[in-house]
Amino acid sequence: MRDTWLVSGGAGYIGAHVVRSLQAAGADAVVIDDLSTGDIGRVQVPFVEGDIADWRLVADTMRQYRITGVVHLAADKQVEESMREPLTYYRRNVVNLMQLLTAMAHAEVGRLVFSSSAAVYGMVDSPLVGEDHPTRPINPYGETKLIGEWLIRDQARATGLRFAALRYFNVAGTASPELADLGRTNLIPMVFDALDRGDQPVIFGGQHPTPDGTCVRDFIHVQDLADAHVAAIAALDEPGASHVFNVGCGRGYSVREVIEMVAEVSGRSIEPRVGAARPGDPAMVVADTARISRTLGWHPRHDLREMVRSAWHAQPRQVSASRG
Ligand code: UDP
């Protein structure tokens, strides 16, 4: 029998890519999404519009579609917003996860892939951050993701639930234009927006303890990230499977290097302005990816150029502007 995965948040940027990867791997998918940030246009599989908080709806959906596992991505993900509205983040990222686990227990669904985040680490004190690095999140977003991992781990110990928590690093790019990131709060879309307005992008801080003084991040193509979910699912065949994996490229790029890549790909000349550092921004966060490559045999296949290129060409206005 084919597996059928319930993808919560499957109308979102990452979720829609995960659905495609599942299908490419021969599995079926059903999407549940409240469309708070998701786009129904991305969904081409059975779809339930609803809130994960409604565990009876979720359990009924699981029974109706004979769901064999859940990929849980439905969550809020903006760091600054989480600092302004912690209750929203605890409710949507923690309470709703409890509701999802309740539904899974009722419907006897025993496999879960959870979207966690590099934000669980907080300030990082080594050039590469491995999964055993201390987790000291510095904002409610990161806290809710870490609490989510704990909740799942405890439920797994109690019930035999099999899980993989994937700690995403900085996700970018798109597999096709219709699945592009519509959010405007991350570095690459913010650089595009500045160019669109005829402005120069702003670098948040030029005095960080990094080679060029700007923050360093590990960028991962959304297609590679989606494929990591499929690889993680394969590891859930083992009874007692309980995994935590970093999902990044294992290579850092500075904010200045990313902006230079945008200039190269777009053909625009860019002279970024260096502004004030953003409070709470860690200087350097780069994944140690040894565990996921060793355990799952997963390796990223797309580089930063492809991330920037695919994201840039998914923006119709900018494509025509760059040609004009
Ligand atoms: N950043 C920047 N200018 C911008 C947007 C982001 O300098 O207009 C920097 C930000 O300070 C961080 C990096 O780019 O060092 C990545 O930021 P993003 O918000 O995309 O992800 P984060 O790593 O904070 O989760």
The number of domains is: 2
**Element-level helix/strand string:** EHEEHEHHEHEEHEEEHEEHEEHHH
Spans of at least 5 consecutive residues with low confidence: 318-324
Instruction: Look at the structure and give the CATH class of the largest domain.
Output: Alpha Beta
Q: Which compounds are bound in this model? A: uridine-5'-diphosphate
Give the CA-based shape.
Answer: globular
Q: How confident overall, as mean pLDDT?
A: 95
CATH 2nd-level architecture of the largest domain: 3-Layer(aba) Sandwich
Radius of gyration: 19 Å
What's the CATH topology label of the largest domain? Rossmann fold
Strand content: 15-25%
- Strands, count: 14
- Largest sheet properties: 7 strands, parallel
Helix content: 40-55%
Strand order of the largest sheet: 3-2-1-4-5-6-11
The helix tally amounts to 11
- Main structural class: alpha/beta
Distance between the termini: 53 Å
